[in-house]
Amino acid sequence: MTPSEPPVRRGRRPPHGDPVLDRGLALLGAFDRDHPRLTLLDLSRRSGIPKSSAARLAGRLVGWGALERDEQGRFTVGLRLLGVASLAPRGQGLREIALPFMGDLAEAVHQHVLLVVRDGEHGVLVDRISSHRALTPLYHTGDRLPLHSTGGGLVLLAYAPWEVQEALLARDLVQEPEMLPISSAALRRTLAAVRRNRVAVFRRDEPVPLVSVAAPIVASADRVIAALSVVVPEQRTDARRLSGAVMTAAGGISRVLSERGHAG
Fold this sequence. Notes:
transcription regulation, two-stranded antiparallel sheet, IclR family transcriptional regulator, globular, 42% helix, 264 residues, 6-stranded antiparallel β-sheet, Arc Repressor Mutant, subunit A, Beta-Lactamase
């Protein structure tokens, strides 16, 4: 190196662009339920990464197994990610304990039974058991749910940290998918009732009238780590009887979690 040359800096982020890891995650984030297969051009557009860089990164992800390519050359999410995701204790471990209770509840209601956990200011649907006669589902396994306008979400929000509740209550919230405004005062009363009764009853008019009844699943130290809910047509709902069944199942899951020392 000559005296006029600047010293070489190692181990620092390049002055332009995102780190490689961020760009790789952006490629994976380009996929969703409506876009399960993407061409390279689609991948570039949806991730915001130039086509040449997207091709290089996608090739590395294919090599690792995070992405796969079909016979038309389109990219899909790879099976190796399924194996990694199955290791998440808040998902798979909880799911294994909850499934027998969810199955019993599904036999009783012949509709949807959902297991939901909180991720920040959203719920995540960990699993769902549905009868072939059930209503058309709005959410599928892995989808993110609004905390303020789903039965399971209301339970998780009611027991969320104060700062999470206040962040949502400070917003202009609407009930989805009807897009009806929800006042913060009304939502506060709803959350207080959920904590008092240990159950949430949520009604929705669109796309079809339905009722969701949800109860908390508790781990160690009386900490709510998930919500169990059922979704049924409104016209065939006895909310009081359904609440008892959901609370009993959620209590059974909580008991097994406690016996196994599950910390959530």
